[in-house]
């Protein structure tokens, strides 16, 4: 009987419990109404929970009076009490304090709050759907301390990136790239990364962030992290298709004097004679060189330009399950350049996969395969600007291509023939992959091992047909191939311990990386016909055939460690060290240790700040440490040999001669850096501010020192550790939420950076010459102790001689003429040469940055981004000929206001004639203000409401957008676009030879239309 009663009581209790439970459903959205997949829903005080699906829908069992807790990264957690309803829809608010909180750092991640380092972060939303082939072109002005200069507008061309200035002279100044944890090197080819695959980019700048990369961190590190499936609703994959089409045209076209004005100028120049008094006059009785009524004029720039276009299609599948997440994408990118015959076609495939095998073991892989073809620019645009005369026809009367200068009769290339006949393209295939296994050895202790590889194959095909006007000995063909391989293995231990007041994170590891590079080339000349182009070089004359090959290898092994300590989230301390060994240095100098220390104080966690209604975030931080640079060629410490030929017993035989002189005692460059920073947040973090001051000094600079006397070697210099340079500056980042209502918001992001460089020591030398422009003006850039790195030099231009008395006073009788150029003679010897040169400026800007304004109204978003630079000078190489009319070359339109006897005798622009054949030095005339402000992007996005028209049955989201790029440019620079870098994308001294312009491949402005759909 008692048993029956007990069973009845249990049954009754169960029925009551069942009646109290109810099935709750609902949809979770953000404030704009967009569904939030992956939101965690938990019945408070129980283990009952679920996750919202892809459309933000959830279903859960809960009793009346229970509390549902909704939590999602980047949003404020929300609690809702259950009543007698069966549907609970909820809206989560973005938590500004948590947005972008997770930051990728070397060998791990950190929350922004716990970070003691200076790290700039750029998320995917500012990179997506920009019509660029490379991510560096989309990075300009987005991150403080990072100066990005596009070298030219060629499809697929790279940019010069400098993080906190130039730290080396003969070494490396390019940042180190790390792709999904794989150390890809300083010369990584960014053409192989699809911009729309990128989840975030972090730029490491200070010592505590950089020293974990030791010998390769002195020029900064760029971490690129691609997308994965984390955060997706489990079970249902998301398919995304994104396509855009861009229309492009040349922006800021260069002006060249053409037509009748050119004819008049040339005729006037040939009518100049010294005159009986020796000071010059114009003799209009002399015959004209060009007949104004019978001279053909050609607009060569208009001929070689064309409307450009870009077509881009991305398809991706993203998914997540209980034990795995994945991101798979494919991309096709095609660009026709704004110069005929140039372009880029690229195919890219990516697979990112993470699998949790068990509670303690997980593994994953990142793999990217890219193949692309670049049609290299067939015409020399700078040569057209400077030398292809407007009086030259495209074709001769017999229909053949013209081939000579109309005035000098010199043999010249024909741009139209180059476009139609030249063959010049690169084929590139790259595979980069990085796999890992991670095992939890014990509580809070885990081991991770990664194995990665990067394989690059490049083939360049070049053929010059015999029918090209300048080819007088038949066709010429050349093939270059390059295969590089990088293998990386890294093994790390991580220990994380969180106590009530203390937190400790310890990282230790060993890494090993080996790089191999193999190259071959073959060429031949005097092809009898052009039928097979470069595909059978044996058709060339055997006596002209040349073959060659090369091989290099370098190995790096390292031990690394990092300790992060925090006390009550208030006081943070980070210790970092890396012990690097490199094969490129000789025995005894192969290893070096690079330590750093950083500390931060979260003032807002103090009791006197917790209740502040104004200040939400207040952090002070500082760091100091040493980073290295090993940017020297392999085998630099060994004597090398070069091939040669000689005649022996009447026969031509091969031989070898001593090549480069070994660099004995060479060691690492070391950069010591101090960083002080402050981070502030106000008014519920609607205003956030971050500022840094840094000073870094690089010692033991790698300098190529001239050898004294003849040493029997091929090289005239030897690399040595001499000299030092200092960079210091400020970085400011400001983010504000200006307006925020239910239907409208306005946010602003501002970044401003300033860097000052100074050369401290050059082995006792006053200066080292860098660059000559190729004209008669002498050296134009130097490294000067006490000045910026680099510095432009030249004479001071004083205008034109207005009278014979001025010429006599300068002691220039018979060498200068009235209306001719006048320069300041500093030493009074009546000669203008290097001794009269002064510092004319530097290509380093006083400050640079960008400002982004984002306006949102319901489903519309307007994004406007400006970036600019102030205070940099540019050396206009074209001025040497175009301003003075020297030689049979093109002339700048400014000469229309030139000195003309009896007409314009007050002009400071030289007269036509007297300076053609005279030496004109580099001068202040060559230097132009390179400051600019550019409307980089203007984008309008519309999230189409899916409730109308039944679209929700087809798509989960639909976005259409239009973007304008390079729409406006404000600058005083006269030679096209002020973003130029003729030399600084090279190595050695070229790496610091910035700011030279001679007429680069033009930049394009574009209008892009696109659509993005998700299923």
Descriptive report:
By secondary structure, the chain is mainly β. The chain has a 22-stranded antiparallel barrel. A 5-stranded mixed β-sheet has the order 10-15-16-13-14, with no helix packed on it. A 4-stranded antiparallel β-sheet has the order 3-2-5-6, with no helix packed on it.
Distance between the termini: 62 Å
Rounded mean pLDDT score: 87
Low-confidence residue ranges: 1-19
User: What structural category characterises the helix and strand content?
Assistant: mainly beta
Report helical residue fraction: under 10%
Describe the biggest sheet?
22 strands, antiparallel, barrel
> How many β-strand stretches?
53
Q: Rg to the nearest angstrom?
A: 33 Å
Topology:
Blueprint: H1 2-20, E1 21-29, E2 40-43, E3 49-51, E4 57-63, E5 67-71, E6 78-81, E7 90-91, E8 102-105, E9 108-111, E10 119-123, E11 146-150, E12 159-163, E13 176-179, E14 182-185, E15 198-204, H2 207-210, E16 221-226, E17 238-250, H3 259-269, E18 272-273, E19 281-282, H4 300-304, E20 308-320, E21 324-336, E22 343-356, E23 361-375, H5 381-386, H6 415-421, E24 423-442, E25 445-464, E26 475-498, E27 502-527, E28 546-567, E29 571-582, E30 591-602, H7 607-610, E31 615-629, E32 641-648, E33 651-658, E34 669-682, E35 687-699, E36 702-706, E37 717-721, E38 724-740, E39 744-761, E40 767-772, E41 779-784, E42 791-794, E43 797-800, H8 804-809, E44 821-823, E45 838-841, E46 847-857, E47 860-870, E48 873-876, H9 879-882, E49 927-929, E50 932-943, E51 957-971, E52 996-997, E53 1004-1014
Parallel strand pairs: 1-7, 13-16, 48-52
Antiparallel strand pairs: 1-4, 2-3, 2-5, 5-6, 8-9, 10-15, 11-12, 13-14, 15-16, 17-20, 17-53, 18-19, 20-21, 21-22, 22-23, 23-24, 24-25, 25-26, 26-27, 27-28, 28-29, 29-30, 30-31, 31-34, 32-33, 34-35, 35-38, 36-37, 38-39, 39-46, 40-41, 41-42, 42-45, 43-44, 46-47, 47-50, 48-49, 50-51, 51-53
């Amino acid at each position: 009987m008692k048993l029956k009663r007990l069973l009845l009581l249990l049954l009754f209790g169960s029925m009551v419990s069942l009646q109290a439970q109810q099935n709750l459903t609902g949809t979770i959205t953000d404030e704009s109404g967009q569904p939030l997949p992956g939101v965690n829903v938990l019945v408070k005080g129980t283990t009952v929970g679920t996750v919202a699906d892809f459309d933000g829908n959830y279903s859960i069992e809960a009793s009346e009076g229970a509390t549902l807790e909704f939590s999602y990264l980047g949003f404020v957690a929300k609690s809702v009490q259950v009543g007698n309803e069966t549907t609970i829809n909820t809206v989560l608010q973005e938590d500004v304090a948590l947005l972008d909180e997770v930051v990728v750092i070397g060998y791990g991640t950190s929350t922004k709050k716990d970070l003691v380092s200076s790290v700039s972060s750029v998320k995917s939303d500012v990179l997506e759907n920009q019509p660029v082939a490379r991510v560096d072109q989309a990075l300009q002005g987005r991150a403080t301390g990072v100066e990005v200069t596009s070298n030219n507008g060629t499809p697929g061309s790279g940019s010069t990136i400098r993080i906190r200035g130039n730290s080396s002279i003969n070494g490396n100044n390019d940042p180190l790239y790390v792709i999904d944890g794989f150390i890809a090197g300083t010369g990584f080819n960014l053409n192989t990364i699809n911009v729309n695959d990128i989840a975030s980019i972090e730029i490491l700048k200070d010592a505590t962030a950089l020293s974990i990369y030791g010998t390769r961190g002195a020029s900064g590190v760029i971490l690129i992290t691609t997308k994965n499936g984390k955060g997706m609703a489990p079970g249902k994959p998301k398919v995304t298709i994104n396509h855009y089409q861009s229309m492009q045209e040349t922006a800021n076209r260069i002006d060249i004097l053409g037509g009748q004005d050119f004819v008049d100028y040339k005729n006037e120049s040939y009518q100049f004679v010294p005159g009986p008094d020796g000071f010059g006059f114009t003799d209009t009785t002399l015959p004209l060189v060009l007949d104004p009524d019978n001279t053909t004029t050609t607009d060569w720039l208009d001929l070689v330009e064309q409307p450009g276009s870009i077509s881009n299609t991305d398809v991706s599948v993203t998914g997540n399950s209980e034990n795995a997440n994945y991101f798979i994408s494919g991309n096709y990118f095609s660009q026709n350049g704004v110069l005929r015959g140039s372009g880029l076609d690229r195919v890219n495939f990516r697979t990112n996969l993470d699998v949790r095998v068990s509670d303690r073991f997980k593994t994953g892989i990142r793999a990217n395969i890219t193949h692309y073809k670049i049609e290299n620019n067939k015409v020399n645009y700078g040569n057209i600007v400077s030398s292809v005369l407007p009086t030259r026809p495209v074709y001769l009367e017999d229909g053949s291509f013209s081939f000579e200068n109309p005035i000098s009769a010199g043999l010249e290339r024909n741009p139209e023939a180059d476009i139609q006949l030249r063959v010049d393209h690169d084929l590139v295939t790259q595979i980069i992959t990085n796999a890992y296994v991670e095992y939890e050895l014990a509580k809070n202790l885990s081991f991770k091992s990664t194995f990665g590889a990067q394989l690059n194959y490049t083939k360049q095909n070049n053929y010059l047909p015999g029918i090209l006007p300048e080819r007088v000995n038949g066709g010429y063909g050349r093939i270059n191939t390059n295969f590089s391989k990088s293998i990386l293995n890294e093994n790390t231990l991580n220990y994380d311990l969180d106590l009530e007041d203390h937190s400790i994170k310890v990282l230790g590891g060993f890494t090993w990386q080996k790089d191999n590079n193999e190259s071959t080339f073959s060429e031949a000349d005097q092809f009898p016909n052009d039928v097979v182009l470069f595909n059978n070089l044996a058709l060339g004359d055997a006596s002209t055939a040349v073959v060659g090959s090369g091989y290099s290898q370098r190995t790096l092994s390292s031990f690394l460690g990092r300790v992060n300590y925090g006390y009550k989230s208030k006081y943070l301390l980070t210790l970092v060290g890396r012990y690097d060994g490199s094969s490129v240095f000789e025995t005894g100098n192969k290893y070096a240790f690079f330590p750093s220390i950083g500390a931060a104080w979260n003032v807002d966690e103090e009791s006197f700040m917790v209740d502040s209604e104004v200040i939400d975030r207040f952090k002070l931080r500082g760091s100091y440490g040493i980073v290295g640079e090993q940017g020297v060629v392999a085998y630099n410490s060994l004597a090398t040999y070069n091939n040669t030929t000689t005649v022996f017993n009447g026969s031509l035989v091969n031989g070898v001669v001593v090549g480069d002189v070994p660099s004995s005692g060479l060691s690492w460059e070391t950069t010591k850096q101090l960083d002080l920073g402050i981070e502030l947040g106000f008014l519920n973090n609607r205003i956030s501010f971050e500022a840094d001051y840094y000073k870094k000094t690089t010692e033991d600079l790698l300098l190529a020192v001239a050898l004294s006397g003849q040493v029997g070697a091929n090289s005239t210099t030897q690399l040595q550790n001499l000299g030092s340079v200092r960079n210091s500056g400020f970085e400011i980042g400001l983010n504000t939420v200006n307006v925020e209502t239910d239907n409208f918001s306005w946010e602003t992001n501002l970044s401003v950076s300033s860097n000052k460089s100074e050369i401290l020591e050059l082995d006792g030398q006053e200066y080292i010459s860098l660059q000559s422009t190729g004209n008669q003006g002498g050296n134009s850039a130097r490294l000067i102790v006490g000045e910026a790195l680099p510095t432009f030099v030249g004479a001071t231009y004083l205008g034109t001689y207005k009278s014979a008395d001025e010429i006599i006073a300068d002691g220039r009788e018979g060498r200068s003429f009235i209306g001719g150029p006048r320069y300041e003679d500093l030493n009074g010897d009546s000669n203008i040469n290097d001794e009269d040169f002064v510092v004319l400026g530097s290509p380093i800007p006083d400050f640079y940055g960008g400002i982004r304004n984002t306006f949102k109204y319901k489903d519309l978003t307007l994004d406007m981004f400006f970036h600019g630079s102030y205070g940099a000078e540019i050396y206009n190489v074209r001025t040497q000929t175009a301003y003075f009319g020297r030689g049979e070359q093109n002339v700048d339109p400014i000469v229309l206001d030139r000195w003309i006897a009896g007409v314009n005798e007050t002009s400071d622009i030289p007269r036509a004639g007297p300076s053609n054949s005279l030496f004109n030095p580099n001068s202040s005339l060559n230097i132009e203000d390179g400051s600019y402000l550019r409307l980089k992007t203007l984008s309008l996005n519309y999230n189409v409401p899916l409730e109308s028209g039944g679209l929700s049955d087809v798509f989960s989201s639909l976005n259409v957008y239009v973007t304008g790029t390079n729409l406006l440019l404000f600058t005083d620079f006269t030679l096209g676009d002020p973003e130029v870098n003729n030399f600084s994308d090279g190595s050695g001294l070229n790496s610091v030879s910035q700011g030279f312009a001679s007429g680069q491949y033009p930049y394009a402005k574009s209008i892009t239309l696109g659509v993005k759909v998700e299923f």
